[in-house]
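Hallway conversation turned thread

IA: we were arguing at lunch whether anyone had actually written out Pirin end to end. Turns out nobody had. So, for the record, here is the sequence (320 residues) and right after it the structure tokens. Reply here if something looks off.
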Amino acid sequence: MSNVEAGPEVVAHEPSDARSGPELLQPRLVPLGGPRAQPVRRTLPQRTRSLIGAWCFADHYGPTDDVGLMSIPGHPHTGLQTVSWLFAGTIEHRDTVGSHMVVRAGEMNLMTAGRGIAHSEYAVAGDEVLHGVQLWVALPDRDRFCEPRFEHHVPEPWTLDDARVTVFLGSLMGSVSPVATSTPLLGAQLDVPAGAALVLDVDPAFEHGILVDSGDVRVAGAAATDAELLYLPPGSSTLTVETGDRPVRALLLGGTPLDERIVMWWNFIGRTHEEVERFRAEWQEQAQAGGTGPYGTFPDPWTSVLPAPALPNARLRSRG
């Protein structure tokens, strides 16, 4: 998914600030696109927390019966991976390395942008509802100019007590995703019945975030509800997810702290203002010329692509 805000926020990232206790991150509503914008609830990045491990972006959308709102023409990415995960509905993906895939609920699309890729995303007509999340992972400096690629994975859910766990990235409780990551990561969906306490063995070196889709949870004495993200610092080898009067569906995200400063603007992740400026200029040139360029070869079905917004007057910079 593109960050198609007309005036994307300038986000300067520092290494994660590991704190002693949980933090509750409230979502902010962001309209993506024009007059018929796709509204999303964004919990990462925020001024108080930019990263959870290498997870750097989290948009939660739907459920909506206006599936036509998910109509995003070709757009670029650099220096990151996109993770598409649906709870309901279907999205058609095309990219400039030749991938064409339809992703459904319970399946994962992972696209590695590396040095540069472009893709489009359209909801499939005929679906009654669209509901899911779009996540980004910042690539570490050593891998951020790798060759772009695309992977599709259908994880197998398993049960723990009365809960269902679906691991799509990393490993949890002996369940391992075959999809390789550049830094240690965890991504899993948790479906937990009401009035339960799900105990999970986790890596104590990981930061964790629990993004609640629906229901009420309490972890380490902190509570979160619909569309909120609960951050948990490293140090614990177990997480106990307690639910309230409603069943809970949530994503458990985790990873070792990235410990790198990054600059994220629009759909680009770089390290300096000059890098992002170059990424934008290269995209604008290819968008106008079409065909093949730094962002790969535009697929034949594409009739238009998204132009990049204007850079802000201020320099893009990372703090620290």
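OS: looked through it. The CA atoms of residues 212 and 250 lie 4 Å apart.
IA: good, adding that to the notes. Helices lie at 273-289.
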